[in-house]
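SAMPLE LOG
Freezer: B-3
Tube label: C17
Construct: single chain, 398 aa
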Amino acid sequence: MIDAFVYDAVRTPFGRYGGALAGTRPDDLAALVVRSVVDRCPGLAGDGAGRVDEVVFGNANGAGEENRNVARMATLLAGLPTSIPGSTVNRLCGSSLDAAIMGSRQIATGDADVVLVGGVESMSRAPWVLPKTEKPYPAGNLDLASTTLGWRLVNPRMPSGWTVSLGEATEQLRERHGISRERQDAFAARSHRLADAAWSDGFYDDLVVPVPGVDLARDESIRADTTPERLAGLRTSFRTEGGTVTAGNASPLNDGASAVVLGSERAQERLGLAPLARIAGRGASALDPQLFGFAPVQAADTALARAGITWADVASVELNEAFAAQSLACVDAWGIDPEIVNRHGGAIAIGHPLGASGGRILGTLARSLQRSGEHWGVACICIGVGQGLAVVLENATA
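STRUCTURE (predicted):
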């Protein structure tokens, strides 16, 4: 098997729902990061773009302007040669990390040397859908279903315990694992503080590309002045009695895109870049749908075992923060130092545009390892309907 490496990564700033990026189509966001990451590879400049073997992108909705196969749309809109194939992956929140896993396997089997992976989501522009009617010209009203987030047009045969909202599922998870409101709010405040500090320190300067025509210099959801005390004053969102999950300790709805260049070791010459990190292990897991937030635990453990290391070897973790409660449950289960998790902020502050988040955490982890000199890192993400994904990276620059 051939090793696959991360060579570079970029993303847009993540915009708030209805915010600065709400007027930008998702296929344009995807084309921007594809074009940007290609332009950053000296070997792909000009006619060299034809050296890309495939584009694999993640997207959780695809019901609107993504035009079903946003990977292909982005490739064409970015001006890449029409000879480059494109495939879109949908594993909901894990879509772009799944795209990276698939791209790395293409490289590992020798089917490709250079694969552009990533993902995109415009939750602001996600359309409403109207179900097909049982018969023509129905006399009654029909309800539109939002495609922004969560279950829709649910099969009545699906057990009701599985189809609770993501927030209610998180309430059940935090009850099971004894995660207090105070811990959740402290974790959320830390996410904002670290994200703000990372931007101020220039960590994201080389990772984020601006969206033309949009006045957005950094992630739009970051609140630098957030404190646990302020978060404690927010009302709960899913349970009026005994609830703990709020808009402040959960990830917001967002718009954005990410892209990562994967390649074999010999792709260095083709790309004109040195690799940042080796993909050393991959893991996927699944459990009961309402326990989705805990799924990264087994996924990461599997990826570590396949990499031949343990948690004792890991110096940096990028865990997508869908909710503070589920993130804390995972960290507790792994028994790791919480300070190695999301040192540059997480999704509670940065945002969670579903299809783009996996590419964000993978690119952040690769750059974090490069800058710190640390050897091993893990990127992992929970996925609605009870799944988890994880990738282990080994620093190639140390």
